[in-house]
Design a protein that fits this description.
Number of helices: 4
Helix content: over 70%
Oligomer: single chain
Low-confidence stretches: 3-10
Number of strands: 0
Number of domains: 1
Mean pLDDT: 80
Radius of gyration: 35 Å
CATH architecture: Irregular
Order of helices and strands: HHHH
CATH class: Few Secondary Structures
Largest sheet: none
């Protein structure tokens, strides 16, 4: 294995290249607002819009839940837990109704077959 020459590692060219790359990195990643002076203002506007939309969505969710129609402030976690409980209840109810529907369809088919048999006898 050849030893690495100290002069090659720390030559003027590699030092200049290293400093140049460091400056580019700092300029691009550390001070990105220098590239676009309106970037911070744009980001703040987008963030405010996102927060407003999230607040509106929470309010819509809160008003859609039974028992939360009033104007009082309710913690978001309470709204989310109530929504989760409501969804679970509705899903359970849907399964029960689907099971009842299947039984009704079977009963309907049995009665239809009996009707056909009665009509054949007549």
């Amino acid at each position: 294995m050849r030893p690495i020459s100290f002069e090659i590692l720390y030559s003027k060219q590699s030092t200049i290249l290293f400093v140049f790359r460091l400056c580019v990195f700092v300029f691009i990643f550390i001070f990105p607002r220098h590239l676009d002076p309106n970037k911070k203002a744009t980001h703040n506007q987008l963030e405010k819009k996102r927060r407003d939309e999230m607040k509106t969505d929470f309010d819509d969710l809160r008003y859609s839940l039974p028992g939360f129609e009033g104007p009082e402030l309710i913690p978001k976690i309470t709204v989310l837990l109530s929504a989760d409980e409501r969804i679970t209840t509705l899903m359970r109810r849907e399964k029960e109704l689907e099971a009842r529907l299947q039984l009704a369809r079977k009963d309907h088919e049995i009665l239809r077959q009996r009707l056909v048999q009665i009509e054949k006898k007549s």
